[in-house]
Design brief:
Structural class: alpha/beta
Number of strands: 21
Bound molecules: 5'-deoxyadenosine, iron/sulfur cluster
Shape: globular
CATH architecture of one domain: 3-Layer(aba) Sandwich
Largest sheet: 6 strands, parallel
CATH topology of one domain: Rossmann fold
CATH class of one domain: Alpha Beta
CATH superfamily of one domain: Methylthiotransferase, N-terminal domain
Length: about 450
């Protein structure tokens, strides 16, 4: 043991769960800690600080944190100065309770307190005391600079935080607080700075980008237009959209700026049944949703859609579930992300009395995937022999990997790495998740 390398005194390791917002927050935490002389490391055994950036959107979140912390028991015994903390949505949701439930933990840092992390961590270390910092900042405007250590070809930029929609199944309004948008100029400046560091593609991030509202400078369509016109970025994506706020103005901007704005839209439907949608507080009916889809394909005939679906929401009958199945015949979703409903703390739906049995949820999820898989194979076939513009992100063993404007992952053989370049590729074989082709 004696000869083994000691973990760096200021080594910090962050493990990340959940959505892109968390991935972005992890990057921010690493950047802030690096500025405070910490050293990001790539495995827990090299670290003297471990942070679990947690997610509580679905299933057993506290349990996941507890079992990860448990894996660090040996390290903690070996290095008593090792500090372990929790960030992200579980931290926000559980706050001090986490310290009680998981005695090995040293600190909890809320979703709105990331910028205070270096201070909190230094206090934890110097005072050797446990700390909880998990308060929402209800006062100040949302103004941050995107912090990314080594941006690659594609990067994320937060445009808004929080959510005011209170869908009855969703914990996000409780773990991320009220919705706030950054100013349009701040986002534009950020994107331009990233392009100067070699970034070619940005994904604008928000829980509900369509409700982006920058005091006096306009809505999401204006922001998209500004990022497209006022920066040198080559490709722009965004996520996530809310169908209720998705409007024609946005379709028009996507259309008129299609040299940069990618024709891929993630449009979570959640259910195909109007009654269930009402109980979910989604603010649209099946028919409203289908109208939005029509509007999108009218303005953007080449758009590719993906969606999120929840099966087994309280009160979902077999007939209601079949409405979700039949939606797949009506809307061409190239990808679906589907989940069994799981009750979340604080949410309204968790208190609904007509919960669906676990086995029924499981069966429905399987039926949904089976149906979509069959369709997705057919959709994929449509790509064969087509030529797509691929922005190359990786090169390994003579194979380039990149994505089309429609967010399809494409692999092709090449002598040159082409990283950061756009290459025209003819597709030879196509499967739902990946396409293979050759340079033309
Ligand atoms: N149960 C199951 N799925 C959920 N999602 C959000 N909350 C829940 C929940 N309580 C899904 C929704 C959302 C995606 C990010 O996660 O489909 O769009
Ligand atoms: Fe959750 Fe609904 Fe807000 Fe999305 S829009 S984050 S599902 S409350």
């Amino acid at each position: 043991m004696e000869n083994e390398a000691q973990p760096e005194l200021k080594g910090v390791y962050i493990s990340t769960y959940g959505c892109q917002m968390n991935v972005n927050d992890t990057e921010r935490m690493y950047s802030l800690l690096e500025m405070d002389n910490y050293t990001p490391v790539t495995s827990a055994d090299q670290a003297r600080t471990i942070i679990i950036n947690s997610c509580s959107v679905r299933e057993k979140p506290v349990h996941k944190v507890r079992s990860e912390v448990g894996r660090y028991r040996k390290l903690k015994d070996q290095y008593p100065d090792l500090k372990i903390g929790v960030a992200g949505c579980v931290a926000q949701q559980e706050k001090a309770k986490l310290l009680k439930d998981i005695p090995m933990l040293d600190f909890v840092i809320g979703t709105d307190n990331i910028d205070e992390l270096p201070k909190v961590l230094n206090e934890v270390k110097s005072e050797n005391e446990k700390k909880v910092q998990a308060k929402f900042d209800h006062q100040s405007a949302y103004s941050v600079e995107t912090l990314i250590r080594n941006p690659g070809i594609a990067s994320f930029v937060n445009i808004a935080k929080g959510c005011d929609n209170f869908c009855t199944f969703c914990v996000v309004p409780f773990t991320r607080g009220r919705e706030r948008s950054r100013t349009l100029q701040e986002v534009v400046a950020d994107v331009q700075k990233l392009t100067e560091r070699g970034v070619k593609e940005v994904t604008l991030l928000g829980q509900n980008v369509n409700s982006y509202l920058s005091s006096c400078e306009g809505n999401f369509a204006h922001l998209l237009k500004a990022v497209s016109e006022q920066t040198d970025i080559e490709r722009i994506r965004y996520t996530t959209s809310h169908p209720k706020d998705f409007n024609e103005e946005l379709v028009d901007v996507m259309n008129s700026h299609n040299a940069k704005v990618c024709e891929y839209i993630h449009l979570p439907v959640q259910s195909g049944n109007t009654e269930i949608l009402a109980r979910m507080n989604r603010g649209y009916s099946r028919e409203d949703y289908l109208k939005k889809v029509d509007m999108i394909f009218k303005g953007l005939p080449n758009a590719v859609l993906s969606t999120d679906i929840i099966v087994g929401f309280p009160g979902e009958t077999e007939a209601a579930f079949e409405d979700t199945l039949s939606l797949l015949d009506e809307v061409r979703y190239e990808t679906i992300y589907a989940f069994k409903y799981s009750p979340r703390p604080f949410t309204k739906a968790a208190r609904f009395t007509d919960q669906v049995p676990e086995q029924v949820k499981k069966d429905r999820l399987q039926r949904l995937f089976d149906k979509h898989n069959a369709l997705a194979f057919d959709y994929a076939k449509d790509y064969e022999n087509k030529v797509l513009e691929i922005l190359v992100e990786e090169f390994n063993d003579g194979v380039c990997r990149g994505r089309s404007t429609q967010n399809k992952v494409v692999h092709f053989k090449s002598d040159l790495p082409h990283i950061g370049e756009k290459v025209m590729v003819k597709i030879n074989t196509a499967f739902p998740q990946t396409l293979r082709g050759e340079k033309v």
